[in-house]
Amino acid sequence: MAKYLISFPSAAMVIPDGEFEAVSRDAHAVIEEAKLAGVYVFGGGIDESVPPVLVAADGTAAEGGYPWAPTLDGGFCVLEIATRDDAIVWAARIAKACRCDQELRVFQFDPAS
Length: 113
What we know:
This is Transcription initiation protein. It comes from Duganella callida. InterPro entries: Dimeric_a/b-barrel. This protein is of the alpha+beta class. The chain has a single domain, classed as Alpha-Beta Plaits (2-Layer Sandwich). The chain contains two helices and six strands. The two termini are 16 Å apart.
């Protein structure tokens, strides 16, 4: 079994007027289905009201993330699934519920972590 990150940036989630409640309901429903199926690990969203802090190896901290990297924002969930094809099915279900494309990535297993 592998763990898959299913995510979207904030800009991808463009909800038509009057559909926010339906999107919220549908997104929570598919996550509840993942929990019932035993594949849900965790999920949430980046709190965009709190700016990132870049912490250097020497312990110094500076406001902001990597200046050369795209902004990390939006929502995500991690599911533990047997196959990539099954992960694609779950990502499609989440995409349909959220009304936006989802990016699927696999975590590399590190037994020491």
